[in-house]
Write a structure and sequence with these properties.
This protein has a single domain (2-93), classed as Ribosomal protein S6/Translation elongation factor EF1B (Alpha-Beta Plaits, 2-Layer Sandwich), CATH 3.30.70.60. Helices cover 29% and strands 51% of the residues. It contains 2 helices and 4 strands, in the order βαββαβ.
């Protein structure tokens, strides 16, 4: 298993229950792929450097994950179609 960081920018107008639902859904996908969620950090609402999908702010969340390298493609596909996620980035940690 390799270690990864996943940073997601979630829709800024989402309420707390909706935001927690997105976080739990991502955790569930990691567990489905036999991965481990090491840590979740909610960075909160921050101003974006540039407008993304007509939004100037977003709610940031960082996931530290342990996954098989083949599972990143599945995560990428799932996150691409999760509507409340404005942007995301998966990076390998050495």
């Amino acid at each position: 298993m390799r270690h990864y960081e996943l940073v997601c920018i979630v829709h800024p107008d989402l309420d707390e229950a909706g935001f927690n639902g997105v976080v739990e859904k991502v955790k569930g996908w990691v567990i489905e792929t036999s991965g481990i969620v090491d840590k979740v950090e909610v960075w909160g609402r921050k101003r974006l450097a540039y407008t993304i999908k007509k939004h100037r702010e977003g709610q940031y969340v960082l996931f530290n994950l342990s996954l098989e390298p083949t599972a990143t493609a599945t995560m990428d596909q799932n996150l691409r179609f999760l509507e409340p996620v404005i942007r995301y980035m998966i990076t390998a940690v050495e």
